[in-house]
Specification:
heterodimer; A: alpha+beta; five-stranded antiparallel sheet; 2 helices; motor protein (chain A)
């Protein structure tokens, strides 16, 4: 329990990190550092996108699986680390 | 039953193969040519006949029915929560979350995911993998030699059954996503009783139906959006009244001017003025008056000007105005185009009506339908009338500095491009839109697009110079997008355009000076002549003789032009040898 806290805190303290969200398999945000409406939006949208990305990867090669998803936009980068049951989303502003 | 015929065949011969035998050649028919028949036939000239043995195919065109689309928003609500948790209740949600956090699988997966994520974060911080190299270098000028094109974006059709002319268009000043179009039947007494008076504001994202209707008591002839307050529109009506609408307040005009104080003829142009309050506008009509209004008090105009060149101040000799021009960078001056082809430049600051009219520019043969100043060089302005478009410079009053050739159809409206100083657009009564680029070609339009079969009556360019709207006689407003070459500023264009305008105005000034000299010389000579010889009674040509002479000259000019055209046509058709003979013949005669 304490390690989880420590990990999340460490991630949040990195340079350029704007927010961290932990989402479960149903798309419910478990842990977040952003406000509720933004969190809900990110959680819902990225959850669906991750499922789609994973299915794409597996369609191309069934032995393959999605390990990481990075979306780079003009303003920042959204990084999604998927797991069987949970999703860790971090929004970072990469270049200063 | 009688047996009529018996066919017999041996059983063993059934199914046996055919035995073929050879036979010597036998002539069956021999038809000899009959020379007597040839008399009833004529030999034809040799001609080329193409023959193709191919599948017969036919081409069909189908146009599907218009699909009506609507843009709507969707409201999402939070979901995904298990049935027993109410997402609105904070307690329940926090309890659920805490429960999840205590699970074993959560801790395990988070640790793994955390380390994975940290790796990527550190990667991002270490090096910017999407760095833009060579950002300082300006993008190479894409001198794509693509020919200028115009594409139709939308066609906004008048929803009423009885079609009226789209007489004027006005873009919404903020972004140009909305277009206000006024509809009115301009033909004298042709308007039927069932014709609707409504004009519409269209939203370009929903081009199937107008967004808002404006309901005046008389059809609107011209509309203008207030550049300062985007919700207010001023309109001039067919019966001479001026009204203003506020789109927040509904379709009825907020206020209309009193009939007794308004114009006596349809108001052809209404323009907002630059003022501190943003409520001033002025209107012009063919009754010869230009009236200034403050929309807060439309019961009477704040100022009145009668366009009388002889400065008598009565309406009898006044010239009817068909267009107005006002540029916010020159708030004290404005220009009026009249029905008899004159452009009058006026000064607002004049105290008496005589002082108001500062100068006139003559040169057109018909009513001036559009007057616009060049947005980059306001001293030059464009006037569109009868069959020609002219560009004038304020300094040369005798004639225009540049003009297009005379067209086959009358021109109805014109305007400059707001992004390029040397590009302007004109619309014609045969439904074509011409784009003129003065730096490229001056004799012909750079691009000529046939927008529709009926006449085009009005034209407006959006502020970005990219999209333009033209209104036609049957009430359809077509939105066209022109290629980027015609709306993006080229290198040195401003300098070149400036040079061109200056050069042309200098040329005109020189010509003007020369003409003045000649006139003075003539006068001097005629004065001298009068002193030396006794006054010979010059046969005064009566007006009928003058008319007859003018007619004769006119017909002569037309005949010679027609002959020239026929000769050119013949030249194209006959082979070269006869052309030479003709040319020699011409030289001889």
């Amino acid at each position: 329990m304490a390690e989880v806290e420590e990990t999340l805190k460490r991630i949040q303290s990195h340079k350029g990190v704007l927010g961290t969200i932990v989402v479960n398999a149903e798309g419910i945000p478990i842990r977040t550092t952003l406000d509720n409406s933004t969190t809900v939006q990110y959680a819902g949208l990225l959850h669906q996108l991750t499922i789609k990305a994973r299915s794409t990867v597996r369609d191309i090669d069934p032995q393959n699986d999605l390990t990481f998803l990075r979306i780079r936009s003009k303003k920042h980068e959204i990084m999604v680390a998927p797991d069987k049951e949970y999703l860790l989303i971090v929004i970072q502003n990469p270049s200063e | 039953m009688e047996i009529t015929y018996v066919y017999t065949k041996k059983r063993s011969e059934f199914g046996s193969q055919c035995n073929f035998t050879d036979r010597p050649v036998e002539l069956l028919v021999d038809i000899l040519p009959d020379p007597t028949v040839a008399a009833s036939f004529i030999q034809r000239d040799l001609c080329n006949m193409p023959v193709q043995c191919v599948q017969q195919m036919s081409e069909h065109e189908i146009n599907t029915e218009r699909l009506e689309t609507e843009t709507e928003g969707v409201n999402h609500v939070e979901g995904g929560w298990p049935k027993d948790v109410n997402p609105q209740e904070q307690e329940q949600t926090t309890r659920f979350r805490k429960k999840v956090e205590k699970e074993e699988s959560y801790i395990a997966s988070l640790t793994i995911l955390g380390s994975l994520m940290e790796h990527c974060i550190k990667q991002n911080n270490a090096i910017n993998i999407y760095e833009e190299y060579y950002e300082e270098e300006e993008e190479v000028q894409e001198s794509t030699e693509e020919p200028p094109t115009a594409k139709t974006l939308h066609v906004l059709k008048d929803p009423n059954d009885i079609k009226r002319t789209a007489t004027s268009l006005s873009w919404h000043p903020d972004g140009g996503r909305k277009l206000a179009v006024s509809y009115c039947c301009l033909e004298f007494q042709r308007a039927s009783k069932d014709m609707s008076f409504h004009s519409y504001i269209w939203n370009l994202e929903k081009p199937n139906k107008p967004q808002m209707t404006l309901k005046p008591s008389s059809p609107i002839v011209c509309l203008d959006y207030n550049p300062k307050d985007f919700h207010v529109l001023a309109g001039g009506c067919y019966n001479g009244q001026v009204a203003y609408w506020d789109t927040r307040k509904g379709s009825q005009p907020v206020e209309m001017s009193i009939i007794e104080q308004s114009h006596r003829d349809p108001v052809y142009k209404v323009i907002w003025l630059q003022s501190k309050t943003g409520t001033d506008c002025f209107s012009a009509s063919t009754d010869g008056q230009v009236l200034w209004w403050d929309i807060r008090k439309l019961s009477e105009p704040t100022e009145r000007l009668i366009l009388d060149i002889s400065k008598k101040g009565t309406l009898d000799g006044a010239a009817g105005a068909t267009s107005l021009e006002f540029e916010t960078t020159m708030p004290t001056k404005f220009m009026v185009g009249t029905e008899n082809g004159m452009v009058i430049a006026c000064n607002r600051k004049g105290k008496t009506p005589a002082e108001k009219i500062s100068s006139t520019f003559c040169g057109h043969h018909g009513p001036v339908y559009a007057l616009r100043r060049n947005p980059f060089y306001p001293k030059n302005f464009l006037s569109v009338a009868d069959w020609i478009a002219r560009i004038w410079s304020e300094d040369t009053k005798e004639s225009s500095i540049m003009w297009t050739r005379y067209h086959m159809a009358r021109l109805s409206d014109g305007c400059w491009s707001p992004t390029r100083p040397s590009v302007f657009f004109t619309t014609k009564m045969d439904g074509t839109l011409d784009v003129w680029d003065l730096l490229l070609k001056q004799k012909e339009p750079t691009l000529s697009v046939k927008v529709c079969d009926e006449a085009l009556y009005s034209l407006r360019v959006q502020d970005n110079g990219h999209i333009l709207a033209c209104g036609s006689q049957l009430g359809t407003a077509t939105l066209l997008e022109i290629s980027s070459g015609l709306c993006s500023l080229q290198r040195n264009e401003k300098a070149l355009a400036n040079e061109m305008f200056e050069r042309e105005s200098k040329r005109e000034k020189i010509l003007e000076a020369r003409r003045r000299e000649l006139r003075l010389k003539e006068r001097g000579r005629s004065d001298q002549g009068k002193e030396e010889e006794p006054k010979e009674a010059e046969p005064q040509e009566s007006t009928e003789d003058l008319v007859a002479r003018a007619e004769k000259e006119f017909f002569q000019a037309i005949e010679s032009e027609r002959k020239k055209r026929e000769q050119e046509q013949q030249k194209l058709q006959t082979p070269i040898s006869t052309v030479k003979v003709e040319e020699a013949g011409k030289l001889v005669s």
